[in-house]
Structure formats: structure tokens, C-alpha cells
Amino acid sequence: MPSAPDSASIPVIPGFHPDPSVCRAGEDYYLVCSSFEYYPGIPVFHSRDLVHWTQIGNALDRPDQLRLPPDAHSSGGLYAPTLRYHDGRFWLIVTNVNGDGNLLFTATDPAGPWSDPVRLPGVHGIDPDLAWDEHGTCWCTVAGISQVRIDPRTGETLGEPRRLWSGAPGAKTPEAPHLYRIGAYWYLLIAEGGTERCHGVSIARARTPDGPFEPCPANPVLTHRGTDHPVQNTGHADLVQGPDGSWWMVFLGVRPRGGSPDWHVLGRETFLAPVTWVDDWPVVGELTSARTPPPWPLRPPAEAPVRDDFDGGGLAPGWISPRIRREEDCTTGERAGWLTLRARGQSLDDTDVTFVGRRQQHLSCRAWTLLDPAEGSGGLAVRLDERHHYEIEATASEVRVVARIGPLRSVVASRPSAGGPVVLGVGTTPVQEITDPRDGPDTVAFYVREADGTRTELVRLDGRYLSTEVAGGFTGRVIGLYASAGTVRFDWFDYEPYED
Ligand code: 6LW
């Protein structure tokens, strides 16, 4: 099991934010992540110091940019984008594994709007990358690892795809390629070993963008496999230069907790580490965060507010919904200052459900909401996917806690209620000390806030069942609001993070 958490284990973008791709435009950095079955898709972050990131939008925030069939499976949808700044424009390439394949978008402002998609029917493979050489040729490289020249304005492929390199002999899933010109070489950075405990980052170099590539003798240049580092599964990386010209790597990792085996519950998160160059090969240093900062002044943004009052025109960019969000089922316009949700499916077991949530970003956190169930029923949920979720739900006559774990669904606690507005809460507490090798990663407790402000805990559940090791897939927990019958209104939502 990994060693105790320490200051080196803090992500720069916590919560389910995997497959980071980063680019620099002057003093500004922009970063995107995979978003899978959630809409809007592909969160876009901004930073000035590579450590503090603020979400400024989602690249695919119009239904015509992101088409997900109603039955698209969880952990389907949008995989592994690449973001580049070239020729005064931002370029984003991404795979929609549910039908549309590889898609390319452009923007002059990464906060949006992003263009309509350009399709790439001749590019086969996930994890597409874009790189331009000095002649203006655009090289598109995908998992496998293979490469083809493209016209990025039309999506047309120019020539036949060519196999480039497959990483270490026998290592599974060479993927996540990024190609860069750095000094005298073209570098091909890849991930290999699978996105679980064996994940790693390897690199090869060539004199031209299409090879032949020579692997780094020190590969993998980044992996935590077989170590007791509190951050595991490190891989899927991208390179960028810091404000002082030094080199940095962003990559995904997870924070497993608990006994044996251990479990991670927040999905794959984005981490940062310094890179130095020895003999023209990169050497990756220890994790960097606000607690172990880089050598330039940090530029933290204002603290994120705890409360979302639903008083603005629309929803903040951090709110996501599975597959689609229909204005008529999810609006802040119907009752001013309230979020109104209209039920579609009957529960979070359904793929077509009215749910709007935010990623759980801290191992230890609480979320609260004031809900009015006068015209329906709904509540506050912790969601991994349709088969793995816990929720506290209010109806006209009771408040109950439901657990869905695999094929099993059960009401695990309930109490009568008068049916008026009620404050519901959920809190996660990571395990502090392992006293039994079977200890889970955390507990998930559900609360009702009483009229006098005290809270009553209805039940405390083992968090392992809402972990990736149990549920499978590529995502992490999302905490949010849903309607299971009729119309439910929410006055506010608080997300209180605690120190990890
Ligand atoms: C992604 C692949 C990966 O396409 O996981 O960790 C897949 N790396 O590169 C899904 O995120």
C-alpha cells in the first residue's frame, strides 16, 4: 500500500481531471483534460504559474459539438485531447469514442467560443496529437503509435499512416503521444503500461518529425510503479516551458488510500513536475505544488467561493451532466435564484437522468444543498456511474439514503419528513490510519441539517464502492443534484473542501 500522504502528493488540478494537455501563449498557460460521458465536454483551465489553475470554460459546450448517444456508456465519450497554440490560434484535437471519432476545433480565445468540429475520418486511433514542423506541415500522431500528415483546416489526411514506435518491447498500450521540436531533436513522448499501477511515460527522439526514433536509454522517464509513493498510476504526460524557460511536465496520477488492495476515489488527477535535460534527454523531478513551489512567484487566484447560489444567468463551467443537459430540464431561469431540475429517468440508475454535479476534488470535503421537494423528489448524490452511486433523497414524506453498488440497490437509511424544504448533506472522510488490511479508502456520510443548525448523520458508508478499482473505467466521483420524479428546486449548493 502507498505511504502516508505528504506535501508532495498534491495535484495542481485535483479531482477527475485526467490526460492533461498544456500549451503556452505568452505569459498565459492553458490546459485541457478528458471528460468522457459528461456534458459540457473538455474543461479548459488557465494559469500564470503552472500551479494554480482556474477553469475558464469547456471547449465543447454546444450540443452540435458533442453528440453522445443516449445510451453512450460511462467512461465513453471524449478521450485525451491535445491543446496547442499555433499561428495565433488555439487548436484542440480529441476523440469521441461514441461515434464521431477524431475531431478538431479551433478558437482565438480558449475560454470560447470554440469552432464547430472538423472531422478526421482518415485518422484512426485515440489520443490524437498535433505538431507543426518548420515547413508548416501538420503531423497527427495517435495511440499505437502511428502518424499521418493532415490538413488541419479540412481534416483531410495526406498520405498513409505510418507506425512510429511502440515503447518498451512487450509493454502494453503505447498511447498518449505528443511530438515536439526541442533544440536539435524531435521528441516523441508517450505513455505505456496501461493507465493503472504500471503506468509510465517514455520518450524517443529523432532528427525529423517522422523518425526514425531512438528510445531514451533511461525509459520510463516517469513511473511510480512498484514504489510506495502516495501518488500512483503516473503517466499520460505533456511538456511545457515555465515562465523562466525551464521545462515542466504535467501528467495524470491517482491518490489511492486504504488497506490492501488500495482504492482511488477521485479519478485520475493532474500533477506537475520539473524536467531537466541531461545529454538531451529529459529527467523528471519530484512533484511540484503550492506546497513545494516552482522557482517563480506564485499567482493564486481569489479563493473559489464555497456557495453557488444559482443567482447568475447560467451554470458555472465546473457543473457537468451525463451525456446531455437539456435547458428545459435544468435551468436557473424558472425560479430566480434557484436551480430547477425536471426528472427524466426515475433514478441515477438510468442513463437518461437529470443530474448536474461537480467533481469531488478533495479527499475530505462536505457538500450541502437546500432542496424544495414540493413538486417532486430528488436529492444530493455521489456518482461514479449508473451502477455505482450513493444519494440522499427527499420526497414529500421522507428523506432516505440509497446505495447502488453493481447490481444491488438498497435503501440504507430513512426518516419521515414533513415534505418542506430541507438541507441535505454529504461528507467524505479519508481513512487516517490503517488498523485492518481490509480498511476502505474513506467513508461517505449523509446528513440532514436540523432547524437549529445541528446536523444529524443518517448513515456512514464505505467509500470503496465508489472507487475506480470497484466501478472500473476512467472517471472519478462527481457530487451533484438530481431529480427522480417531477420538478425539484435547489436554492443553493455548498462545496466545502478540507485540507488534503
Ligand atoms: C486515454 C489514454 C489513457 O485515452 O487513458 O491514461 C485513456 N491514458 O491515453 C482514457 O483516459
Characterise the protein shown here.
The chain has 500 residues and is an all-beta fold. It has two domains: 7-284, Tachylectin-2, Chain A (5 Propeller); 307-497, Jelly Rolls (Sandwich). It has one helix and 35 strands. The strands form seven sheets. Strands 23, 25, 26, 27, 28, 29, 30, 31, 32, 33, 34 and 35 form a twelve-stranded antiparallel beta sheet that branches. Strands 14, 15, 16, 17 and 18 form a five-stranded antiparallel beta sheet that branches. Strands 1-2-4-5 form a four-stranded antiparallel beta sheet, with no helix packed on it. A hairpin with a 4-residue loop joins strand 12 (146-151) and strand 13 (156-163). The radius of gyration is 23 Å and the shape is globular. The protein starts with 20 loop residues before the first strand and ends with a strand.
- Overall number of strands: 35
- Based on the coordinates given, report the CATH architecture of the largest domain: 5 Propeller
CATH topology of the largest domain: Tachylectin-2, Chain A
Return the average pLDDT rounded to an integer: 96
Report the portion of residues in β strands. Answer: over 45%
Number of helices: 1
- Which assembly state applies to the chains in this document? single chain
CATH domain class of the largest domain: Mainly Beta
Summarize the amount of helix as a percent range.
Answer: under 10%
Q: What structural class do helix, strand and pairing data support?
A: mainly beta
Biggest sheet, in brief?
12 strands, antiparallel
Task: Name the poorly predicted regions.
Answer: none
Q: What would you call the shape?
A: globular
Alpha-carbon Rg, integer: 23 Å
